[in-house]
Amino acid sequence: MPLEVHDRDYMFAGHVGCPGCGAAIAMRFVLKALGEKTVMVIPACCWSIIAGAYPQSALKIPVLHTAFETGGAVASGVRAALDIKGDTETTVVTWAGDGGTFDIGFQALSGAVERNEDFIYVCYDNEAYMNTGIQRSSSTPYGAWTTTTPGRDWKKMRKKNIVEALVAHRIPYAATASIAFPEDLFRKVEKAKAIKGSRFIHIFASCPTGWRIPSEISVKIARMAVQTNIFPLYEVEDGVRYTINFSPKGYLVKEYFRLQGRFKHLTEKDLDQIQSMVEEDWKLLLHKAGGS
Amino acid sequence: MKRVLEGSHSVAEAVRLARADVIAAYPITPQTHIVERLSDFCADGSLKARYLRVESEHSAMAALIGASSAGVRTFTATSSQGLALMHELLHWASGARLPIVLAEVNRALAPGWNIWTDQTDSLAQRDTGWIQLYCETGQEVLDTTLQAFRLAEQVSLPVMVVLDAFYLSHTYEPVDVPGQEEADRFLPAFRPRFMLNTEKPCAFNQMAPPDVYMEMRRSIQDGMKVALGGFAEMEEEFRRIFGRSYGAVEAISCEDAEIILVTSGTITSTCRQLLKELRSRGEKAGILKIKLFRPFPAESIRGYLKNVRKAAVIDRNFSFGSGGIFAGEVKAALCDLPERPEVFSFIAGLGGRDVTISDLESIYMQTKSQDVPPQESIWAGLRPLPVYAPDLKE
Fold first, then answer.
1. CB B90 within 8 A of CB B217
2. Contact with chain B for residue A51, Cβ under 8 A
3. Which one of A49, A208, B265, B360 is separated from B150 by 20 to 30 angstroms, measured CA to CA?
């Protein structure tokens, strides 16, 4: 099915991301949906590099690079300045990785959304500190190898559920999205753009370098994360109204895990345990969405 | 119009007169009266600003970095732990060349918890690329805050207006509050050279590899050099409109002085009182008050101190492993002179301990009675600390 999306791009063809970078694909889609009246705040993350060094930029919109933990606060300030100047047309977007969102930037993000600042916060999630060389974050999934969870010390904690943490702030809109489902992603960004207040979009963005996968299966692996219910697509309005956007096809998590070098140490028993953890999370989500 | 104002409220009045557009702040004693008064101004509409009640000082500075990058006038206030928490972003603000104004109420750093005045918090931010101005009176606080916006915007560097906790922040004094029209004449609307603009998209603060980073740092120093001359020009314009000026340094009875007490902040006021007594006894004493700490006005300090026999620098701060911070700066400024005064370094009033006229007189007399200063700073009025842990005793 062809994608019904305009052919204008707000990203130049050149950037310095790795081959198959899910974060670059995510940026291209999101900017297409946002359009040129967008100011983007980028705290330290892979995109601090991908966007290019002085005096070049891979993006055709104004970009404010900022310190790691400041995504929520800097965007609040940009929004306040635009408001005082009477500019209500421009959309302010923070574009942060999982480290800048789940970990070091969580306080500023929580503060900003508690104040219901009028901006869109996008977290492109590649499930570890990829820019510094694949170190564990609180977004790294259970079972994963990283350079700080090597050998038998592979990560034994669950991935933090960031969407639920944001939903608990009762923000107007929170959603998950995936680079493998561009129509769903496009619709969600357009929907978020039309809403006032704090909006949060959590995009699953695969990382061939860090996940130890061939670059050509970057999108496939992101699709499988949704199909296995590891990363369900859903949206939550006003912190209460849940809508699940994709119904699972019954794929097993081990099919997703088997393709990635970061999980190659896991035993069948480990994978069975992960399967039951995923099923438990899915049931919880169904319950919230009013399903069985 | 003359009004009796608390030092904190003098800051707030100046921010109102400056028509700040975005304020972001997090409360900390003893800065609170500044931000409470500004909240009142925003609530009653006398200041048309967006006030962001952020969740930390770090986010306060981050929010202003965002707002200033979008081209509006910005202000925050903090103290001590709050300033220390901002540290990373103080570097960011100057590196991004943003004219943010910050009122910093000098307070001691913990532990132990101490809310009283001490300059180590602001002086520890010496190398962050901020212009620093130290104030002595409520009037000076108001005037300096208004001046700070103009200086910051002229050189595209952030400015810290520094005032002593309680002795200044919570003390009421008669203050001449300018009218809005004269304030506008002195401080026209902010016209940023660069800003976030969807019509002219640019990337700000992006990666700067070794081939450009050094030049970017040098441009900050060039801005500091402009600020040194710019400060005098700005003050001249201020004096023309308001009839007052302070100087980067102020020399009091220095012409024929043999011993000069070098001060900053409210200790200067106490020194002025002592000076009257010393002069009435025929002592050839003087005071050199340092207002501008960054950029450091080394040349004018050399000019005032080169012909005196002794200088006693009084520091309400300390750099561990070194000495009084103003003393170190003064010594560095003098070291190239063929003939220079003996510089005595005194530490006094840390953690808000009162520095009385008799304390200062003792400092003066110690300076007078010794030919050569000791290598290390002299801690004035040091007392034995009682030990309360019995099992630590022999």
1. no
2. yes
3. B265
B291 and B199 assigned to the same domain: no
| Domain shared by B7 and B62, yes or no | yes
Owning domain of residue B67: 2-242
Distance, CA of B190 to CA of B186 (rounded, Å): 12
- CA B125 distance to own-chain centroid: 11
Question: What count of CB pairs under 8 Å joins A to B?
Answer: 161
The closest CB to that of A39, out of B21, B22, B198, belongs to B198
Q: How far apart are CA B329 and CA B20, in angstroms?
A: 33
Residue with the two structure tokens 């700000």: B204
Which residues of chain A are within 8 Å of residue B24 when distances are taken between CB atoms? 73, 76-77, 80
- Tens digits of per-residue pLDDT, B313-354? 999 999 999 999 999 999 999 999 999 999 999 999 999 999
Domain end call among B242, B270, B294: B242
pLDDT higher at A250 or B220: B220
Condensed to tens digits (0 to 9), the pLDDT of residues B277-291 reads: 999 999 999 999 999
Q: Nearest residue of A to residue B216 by CA position?
A: A54
Q: What is the pLDDT of residue A248?
A: 82
- Strands A38-43 and A91-96, how do they pair? parallel
Question: Could you say which of B217, B242, B267 is where a domain stops?
Answer: B242
Helix ranges, chain B (H): 7-17, 32-44, 57-69, 80-95, 120-123, 138-155, 180-186, 210-242, 267-280, 298-305, 325-334, 357-369
For residues B300 and B368, state if they share a domain: yes
| pLDDT more than 90, % of chain A | 95
Q: Which of B42, B90, B80 is nearest to B163 (CA)?
A: B80
Q: How many independent structural domains does chain B possess?
A: 2
**Residue A134: CA atoms inside 13 Å, Cβ hemisphere, count?**
17
DSSP string computed for B219-279? HHHHHHHHHHHHHHHHHHHHHHHHS----SEEEES-TT-SEEEEE-TTHHHHHHHHHHHHH
Together in a domain, B36 and B154: yes
* pLDDT of B393 above 60: no
State which residue of chain A sits closest to B21, comparing Cα positions.
A84
Average pLDDT of the residues in A168-196: 98
The answer to whether residue B322 sits within a structural domain is yes
Q: Hey, where are the domains in chain A?
A: 22-288
A218: left (phi over 0), alpha (psi -120 to 50) or beta: alpha
Judge: A49–B207 Cβ closer than 8 Å, yes or no.
yes
Amino acid at A131: N
- Token match 């040091």: residue? B382
Whether the predicted interface score ipTM is above 0.90: yes
Q: What are phi and psi of B158, to 5 degrees?
A: -75, 155
Contact B50 A83 (CB under 8 A): yes
Q: Is position B73 within any domain?
A: yes
The answer to whether A65 contacts B206, with C-beta atoms less than 8 Å apart, is: yes
Provide the pLDDT confidence category of residue A259 given band limits of 50, 70 and 90.
very high
Asked if residue B387 belongs to a domain, the reply is no
What is the structure's pLDDT at A263?
98
* Contact state of B204 with A82 under an 8 Å Cβ cutoff: no
Using DSSP's 3-state secondary structure scheme, residue B161 falls into: strand
- Assigned domain for B391 exists: no
Calculate helix-pair angle for B267-280, B357-369, nearest 10 degrees: 60
Pick from A47, A163, A178: nearest CA to A113? A163
Together in a domain, B207 and B287 = no
* B46/B189 same-domain check: yes
Let me know how long chain A is: 292
CATH code reported for the domain at A22-288:
3.40.50.970
pLDDT at A283: 95
Question: Is the CB of A70 inside 8 Å of chain B's CB atoms?
Answer: yes
- Which one of A39, A76, A110 has the shortest CB-CB distance to B196? A39
Number of neighbours of residue B382 by Cβ within 10 angstroms? 10
